[in-house]
Amino acid sequence: MSLDAKIPKGPLAEKWSTHKFNLKLVNPANKRKYDVIVVGTGLAGASAAASLAELGYNVKAFCFQDSPRRAHSIAAQGGINAAKNYQNDGDSVYRLFYDTIKGGDYRAREGNVYRLAEVSVNIIDQCVAQGVPFAREYGGLLDNRSFGGSQVSRTFYARGQTGQQLLLGAYSALNRQIHLGKVKMYTRTEMLDIVTIDGQAKGIVTRNLINGQIETHTGHAVLLCTGGYGNVFYLSTNAIGSNVTAAWRAHKRGAYFANPCYTQIHPTCIPVTGDHQSKLTLMSESLRNDGRVWAPKTVAIAEQLRKGAIRADQVKEDDRDYFLERKYPSFGNLVPRDVASRNAKEMVDDGRGVGGSGFAVFLDFADAIHRLGKDAVAAKYGNLFDMYYQITDEDPYKQPMRIYPAVHYTMGGLWVDYNLSTNIPGLYALGECNFSDHGANRLGASALMQGLADGYFVIPYTLGDYLATIGPKPVDAGHPAFEKTKQEVTDRINKLLALKGTKTVNEYHRDLGHIMWEYCGMARTEEGLTKAKGLIQALRADFWKNAIVVGDNEEVNPALERAGRVADFLELGELMVDDALMRRESCGGHFRLESQTPEGEAMRDDEHFAFVAAWEYKGDNQPEVLNKEILDFEFVHLTQRSYK
Amino acid sequence: MSNGNMNLTLKVWRQKNAGSKGAFVTYKAENISPDMSFLEMLDVVNESLIHTGGEPIHFDHDCREGICGMCSLYINGHPHGPKNAITTCQLHMRTFHDGEIIVIEPWRAAAFPVIKDLAVDRSAFDRIQQAGGFVSVNTGGVPDANEIPIPKIIADEAFNSATCIGCGACVAACKNASAMLFVSAKVTQLGMLPQGQPERYTRVQAMVAQMDAEGFGSCTNTGACEIECPKEIKMTNIAHMNSDYFSAKLFRQEEIGEHASGE
Predict the structure, then answer these.
(1) Residue A379 sits at the chain B interface (C-beta within 8 Å)
(2) In chain B, which among 200-259 make CB contacts under 8 A with chain A?
(3) Which residues of B touch A74 (CB under 8 A)?
(4) B86: CB partners within 8 A, 6+ apart
(5) Helix, strand, coil % (nearest 5) of chain B?
(6) Window B:86-145, CB contacts with A under 8 Å
(7) Which residues pair with B217 in a beta bridge?
(8) Is A610 helix (H, G, I), strand (E, B) or coil?
(9) Which of A61, A219, B18, B182 supports an S-S bond with A35, CB 3.0-4.6 Å?
(10) How far apart, in whole angstroms, are the C-alpha atoms of residue A256 and residue A279?
């Protein structure tokens, strides 16, 4: 089946404004007759909930954390892009659009990406009006910096805590609407299923994480703003609680899951130290503005470094290989993430990795400290340096950081059309939860932009069109679909609680992570992926026999919460592998060893793979069906990406 | 131990739920690597509890990189443990030595009832923010970002206040369980910025009123909050809030009128 993304016709720059005019409106007096469910309160969810409540809709917002402010958007460090051209350096909406579509390796939709670039300027205005304290110049105006994959300075930032400040801005807007009674907030509540009636989303089933109560909630529409699924790899930069369950449950109810194998492996994370490790910590990409990435030129020097026989600062300049600067002279250390990650892996594969494990390269600030002074470096990156020191017990002002790629973001997600609607009417997906704007690789400082674009400036328009179409008749809370779905959720919980085997859920999760990282990580092959598929199937079967889930439902039970999420990851993992197997090309974060240029760069196959892969669930342990949305490039000429 | 790993004794507060009585229970944490974070050490203990049929110790946590504010834990008499300017999830076991006894308690405050074991209910903090911790602007229709120039020094100071993660360590550190540092950080951030001026005096009254209603104690300027704050929020925020609060109460009741709720 071929999918219709409903991209408006006409010139690129007019698509969104034309579309906004054509969308139906809901009469102001009728808005209060509609209930909208928003699941997740990160940048996308909080901004959507607040903006929809401001318009007059009744919003019910849900998060599994103890407060909406905890959502993992809060951990984003580097910044948010906007085509303001405040720096007079040649930026424009078109350039941001072009950089983003190219950065995504031509696997995103032109219409969506242009709209994203277009509304980016409004986001900055909105955040400043809320009191978000962005970095400023001495003249009082906003400061910018450059980020990977771009040659202009368009990234707005708040020290190394941009995500925190943007989320607290959205949280404050949400709080205002809670105060006004337009948003009812449900914290420590996890969504476990969606309820559909006649093929339309009409509500959700949740579990209260304090007392285990399973409840149903009705809504005229359901918005999933539940983030990405990077934790399928066990170790990632995601929060421990980040999970795929909401999106996966929706998928199993019929929502297509698009491009699941598009995973972003971020180049600059703190390396793994041992099996006890529960998560990986990112060092912001902004560090590559001033830090220089290098590895020793020879295996012999690398060995001495690994044994601790010499320190990094003792390696002579001539013995260092600044491999990104060498291979990509025009972008240097600022190449996009996928390119930087792959090159770091090459160094390690070549035997030139450093650190105790050998799984690291250096990110060196000695030149920047020499050029700018320690204070200036501290002012820009102080909190990141402190964070590095806390974790590694090494002082990055004196020794270069050791970094290695780690799973950071998932470009794949629920398939949505231009209106952010999934193929289930009434079910929407916003932010990282959807697949739509980043193609096969996300540029730095684009995730915050997309989350807030969807929530503040897209969904308030597109949702109205759907609501006006279905009308304000209340959803029938007594419809048998609610009781039926609730029973299915309860049955699944009981099935999990009945598991009294010998292996903990965490151990299964770690095993799954190893499989995913080894075979579906930075480089993938047909052979490896085929093997991974079998391993995941076996692991999943074993989970449902031998896992241990302690405790009861009617209490605080994180073991049960974790078990449900890992069970879903065990299904998603296989779909990711299927998707990676199908896509016999390299693009962005998806690198197939069978498909590379003579220089070892990713080689796309536009003739056969310029499409979105939207997978359709067909039942437990049944192969999923591939639906294709062909990507039409009307305005951009597809080229092999070059950052040389 | 020869490989640098440690054996530790933990005295952990266990409490089934808000309604039951809690007590300390002693556990052994064995073969702990100094590279583990404190929470990873608890993960190891919990895994072994699950394997031996015990009930894992419950604690709040999420981002594990010191920014979400979800983790808590009162460790050896200090919120977020003995080191300054970090959260519990950033505390590493190299801070401790082999054979040490570590006492782990929840935040203790009437306004933060225990949910289970080491996790407490901090929803009072959300309600204080809902009372007035915002600028009343709707989405859209705002001026261009550079039409509001803000001196760098003001922007930087506002940022310092805005870095509060809402963890509640200030309350846990305070002998009166006062929330003044938390509340003043938001009042100060918005009170310093031009965007926050229109509601400056209504906001401070609304937030303080909610803080009092939640049952937090009074501030006696002891300063434990500032020392224990993982984000190093300064007590000058409290001075700023007191100044705005008294100014509002003494001189501005007419202009504020009935609308002291922030709207």
Answers:
(1) no
(2) none
(3) 63, 67-68
(4) A390, B66, B80, B230
(5) 40, 15, 45
(6) 86, 90, 92, 94, 115-116, 119, 121-123, 125-126, 129-140, 142-145
(7) B178
(8) coil
(9) A219
(10) 29
pLDDT tens track for B86-141: 999 999 999 999 999 999 999 999 999 999 999 999 999 999 999 999 999 999 99
We find that the CATH architecture of domain A490-611 is: Up-down Bundle (1.20)
Which residue of chain A is at minimal alpha-carbon distance from B53? A550
| Residue A38 β-bridge partners | A61, A223
Query: How far apart, in whole angstroms, are the C-alpha atoms of residue A155 and residue A153?
Result: 6
In chain B, residues with a C-beta closer than 8 Å to the C-beta of A159 are: 159
Could you tell me the end-to-end alpha-carbon distance of chain B, in angstroms, rounded to an integer? 61
Backbone φ/ψ region at A35: left (φ over 0), alpha (ψ -120 to 50), beta: beta
Does the domain spanning B6-116 belong to CATH 3.10.20.30? yes
For A614, the enclosing helix (H) or strand (E) is: strand A611-616
Suggest the residue from A276, A282, A565 to mutate for an interface test with chain B (most B CBs closer than 10 A). A276
pLDDT given for residue A160 in this prediction? 84
Residue contact B43–A279, C-beta within 8 A? no
Residue A587, phi then psi, degrees to nearest 5: -155, 130
What are the angstrom distances between the C-alpha of A76 and each of A421, A549, B19, B65? 26, 33, 38, 11
SS3 assignment, position A596: strand
Q: Which residues in chain A (557-576) have CB-CB distances under 8 A to chain B?
A: 558-559
How far is residue A590's CA from residue A584's CA, in Å, rounded to a whole number? Answer: 10
The Cα of B138 is separated from the nearest Cα of chain A by a number of Å equal to 6
CA distance, residue B75 to nearest chain A CA (Å): 17
pLDDT at B260: 47
Query: Which CATH architecture is the domain A265-408 placed in?
Result: Alpha-Beta Complex (3.90)
Q: DSSP character for A454? A: I
Of A39-53, A537-551, A627-641, minimum mean pLDDT range: A627-641
A168 and B162: CB-CB below 8 Å? yes
How many Cα atoms sit within 13 Å of A381 on the Cβ side? 24
Closest approach of chain A CAs to the CA of B250, in angstroms?
A: 26
**Chain A residue numbers touching B152 (CB-CB < 8 A):** 136-138, 140
Per-residue buried b or exposed e for A318-337, using 16+ beta carbons within 10 Å of the residue's own CB: eebbbbbeebbeebbbbbbb
Q: Is A337 a catalytic residue?
A: yes
Ordered by start, the domain boundaries in chain B are 6-116, 123-256
User: What φ, ψ does residue A185 adopt, rounded to 5°?
Assistant: -100, 130
In angstroms, the CA A463 to CA A23 distance is: 9
Cβ neighbours of A160 in B, within 8 Å: none
pLDDT of B1 reads 45
Q: CA-CA distances (angstroms) from residue A28 to A32, A34, A53, A183, A471? A: 8, 11, 12, 17, 13
Q: In the prediction, which pLDDT does A93 show?
A: 98
pLDDT over 90 at A147, yes or no: no
The number of C-beta contacts closer than 8 angstroms across A and B is 219
Q: Each residue of A444-482: pLDDT tens digit? A: 999 999 999 999 999 999 999 999 999 999 999 999 999
Q: Is A351 on the interface with B (CB under 8 A)?
A: no
Quick one: average pLDDT of A178-197? 98
Calpha distance A233→A512 (Å, rounded): 7
The domain spans of chain A are: 265-408, 490-611
CB A307, CB A296: distance < 8 Å? no
Q: Which residues on adjacent β-strands are paired with residue A407?
A: A265
**B-interface mutation test, from A161, A175, A380, A562, most B Cβ less than 10 A away:** A175
